[in-house]
Design a protein that fits this description.
heterodimer; A: 627 residues; alpha+beta; Elongation Factor Tu (Ef-tu), domain 3; Arc Repressor Mutant, subunit A; DNA polymerase, domain 1; six-stranded antiparallel β-sheet; five-stranded parallel β-sheet; 21 helices; 37% helix; B: 473 residues; alpha/beta; Gyrase A, domain 2; Four Helix Bundle (Hemerythrin (Met), subunit A); Rossmann fold; seven-stranded mixed β-sheet; 16 helices; globular
Amino acid sequence: MYIAGEYDIIVIGAGHAGVEAALAAARMGCNTLLSTLSMDNIAMMPCNPSVGGPAKGHLVRELDALGGQMGINADKTCIQFRMLNTGKGPAVHALRAQADKKHYQFSMKETCENTENLDVKQLLIEDVLVENGKVKGVVTEDEETYLCKAVILASGTYLSGRIIIGEKTYDGGPNGQRAAQKLSDSLKKLGVRLMRFKTGTPARVDSRTLDYDKMQIQPGDDEARNFSFMSDIKTREQTPCYLTYTNEETHKIIRDNIHRAPMANGIIKGIGPRYCPSIETKIVRFPDKERHQLFIEPEGLHTNEMYVQGMSTSLPMDVQVAFLHTIPGLENAKVMRAGYAIEYDCLDPMQLKPTLELKAIDGFFSAGQSNGTSGYEEAAAQGIMAGINAACKLQGKEPVILKRSEAYIGVLIDDLVTKGTNEPYRVMTSRAEYRLILRQDNADQRLTPIGRRVGLVSDERWARFTKKKENIDKAIEALKGTILNPNVETLKLLADHDLCEIKTSISLFDLLKRENVDYEKLSTAFELPELNAEEREQVEITSNYEGYIRRQLDQVAHMEKLESKRIPEDIDYMDVPNLRDEAREKLADIRPVSLGQAGRISGVSPADVSVLMVYLEAKKREKEAAE
Amino acid sequence: MQQGELISAIATAPGESGIGIIRISGKGAVDLAKRCFVPFSGKNISEYAPRQAVYGKVTGIDGQLIDEAICIIMPAPHSYTCEDVVEIQSHGGSVALREILELTYKLGARAAERGEFTKRAFLNGRLDLTQAQAVMDVIQAPTKASLKLATGHLSGHFSGKIREMRNDILALIAHLEASIDFPEDDIEDVAISETKAKAAELQGKIQKMLKSAHTGKILREGLKTAIIGKPNAGKSSIMNLLLREQRAIVTDVAGTTRDSIEETVNIGGVPLVLIDTAGIRETDDVVEKIGVERAKEYIDKASLILAVFDSSRRLDHEDEEIAELIRGNQVIALLNKSDLQAETSCDDVNALLASQNASDESIDNNLGISTIQVSAANGEGLEALEKAIQDIAYEGNNQEETADFVNDSRQAELLRQAEEFLQTATDTIESGMSEDFIVIDLRSAWEKLGEITGETVGEDIIDQIFKNFCLGK
């Protein structure tokens, strides 16, 4: 055995999960190896050229607040930003950006290569070494062995990847990459339960062959926006996207060739995501829809490749070309890359602890698409948590498990490990029960202290955060402390500043709730701390939605009681009397960490949770009595 | 010590008994007692020493008397659960006991789960280790039964109605959520006005079901009825007629603090609880001998007044006094002695009652007064009376669908809460709040309805979104 190196942590795969995991582990002081199939494809975006959107944008903000890299990298390399949902309530405002794919990759590669404690190597890992239920190292295809204390699997869609275009299939990863064929077998031998999922991507077409006059231009926001709480970019050149639609002719070609679609001819067996259906699926499932919208999006500033968003397909090439040519603006489009479907192995995430460590193998963590999720943001969010928790484990620190009431990251991971998933999982705002609290604007307030605690938040970020927090607190204090009485003098002051009349005594904090009143306007009439736009937004939301926010905080407080009741890791469910059989089975399988998590398992009733609660209390007293 | 959520339940065994106890435990128990219990001493209940039995009355939110009772406050930790506990002792098996329970729900308590008091007692150290197994038995044992209850107790039609409403709300939620989660997808805008209209429609449906809760309650607990009339109008003969016609005597409860006898008779399928039958037998002239005050007390206690008038005599000031007394109540006027020569007609009585009602506009005229000619002597008019009583009991609810009536105070309370959330949704829409907030209210309404049928929150919303809309890149 050739021992090629020894690390604290080895990360398998350098996609969005892998880079965040490796950066977090290295920044927390662990000697880390980031292995990738290709040095040229670190943080590659094999599908759509965008970052963010509802709930996904929230994840990026949270990742950033913890000290992750995705937000900063996106701010540096994206070429269009839009805030979505601006009319739909503060909690669902969502930032979405168009990326320059290559720029994004190279910038992330540069960061990784220049991070202390982090080695980046091009390796194909084929085997994970486990001894006595504990991770020992990995073996590459060139028979090099790297020893380590923890492994983070971030293999994306590469595990036994298979590409499908029409009747053609071949082994491979996305974008013409190699697949990791043997690693799947190694995992199976270790007793890891695998599932088979599928996803797909549309064709890329040559910008020079498109007629943009036939499409609607979709510009970015005028105002410059940033994902990262650390970015101060105020101006940015915005590259537009374009909107066009399919039509009856497109649909006819697809219908006429539907027997050649891999989903119809039985070649595809994996389960695809419902929110990312191929165009052929859309036409079959919604036959009455007269047209489907397509966004034509640039893949970068230095390429002519345009991404046809909404047109994901695995139909044969002749069909792809034929239907693309029916679309206004794409009549003469030249295809540069074909659309395809990809099938891959992933872990059943119910085998994981909320720390993303496998319950059965000590020191084996997994993050990203290999856990059955989809999306760059979901992957990155798991990546940073796996990195943090692997490092915490080696350093003997308490693991970091974010709660559902604390972060979308918490919702995402809790869903995965408690409920599992039967399709590639995508985060959505509708999955979060406390989304008024989980806003993208307050991600730093929620998570930066946690990032600081584990050592991911730099002094610079921390100083910025504390200053912002102080300013907000001071402003709210001032608003609450200033009480107006409806006397002549005050009424005149209000009228002079175009502020609404008052009839009874009211604090400035409550006055801020009124229509057409904002912090800036109040500042003209009253002595208030000076705030920047971000801080003002925080203060205004705190005031305007006070009632709703309090209602959700009450719900959280109620839930917290069960959430804080930990279940010992060594509990033997066979020993708990009075559990119903179904509940006993599920509990023994999922092994929840808290009574709160236990209650969210399907098949576990409130009475089962009560029984468990009494059992734990009895055990505790027995133990105390013994001591 | 941290106190749990406020819970309440009837702590005594179901069925007839002298005393029934409602136990309330958790954060806010004492406040709840303050809001519904008034000691006869005139002091506030909280001024009494802990664990002192205090005699007083329980009053509803509207200030109306529900029952006389004994109230004991046991502050934490010296109580069964080690939390603040309030116990209210009222009459066992009585309607009042259930009314008090419903009142505690309205005042913020939730229905205690099986074994929940005992569970808290154990967790808070009141019960020792040897009792752990017994506690778990209590919690889990009825689960199988209550599961059956949750499904068996609800008729298919009733739970079908709830599901239908849930589906309607779910469709609204899914549309709003889809527009939030997929802002760039091609889904039609949510028409807020339609959402509002739908919410109002569902609110109407729930209100109708709650009305059936009223019917269900009448069918279960009986309709308290007072027979009022001037001396010799024939009250006791009417009562005897009803008692003779009864098909089943359901209960014969002698109260412990009040000296009254109630008898239940079944009239056309509706149980009438006749108040103070003994009193009527003795005197037959409540107004004259016992006084107007006592008659008034009967009227306050009753949900239905049978006002007896004598057709063989002209209406006089006594009749006017009675008409004045029963103003604003649910009344069936009986023109008795139709077998004798008529001096007074139905129109005369209607006119008398209408004028009394019209004199006070604040009185809801919808209470509707109908006059029926009867003869206690030969039984004439009994059928019409039966019909009138049924109309009141069923209030437009279909008599054939009794199985669908809300007949459980927990169900009724959850329905009421769901309706309230729909109203909040409407308010949210009207105050111009965005989709995000509307969804919060709709979700709450949807969850409340789910609690009735025992359905938990799952992937429903997300499934619905993908079923209804073609989404995704």
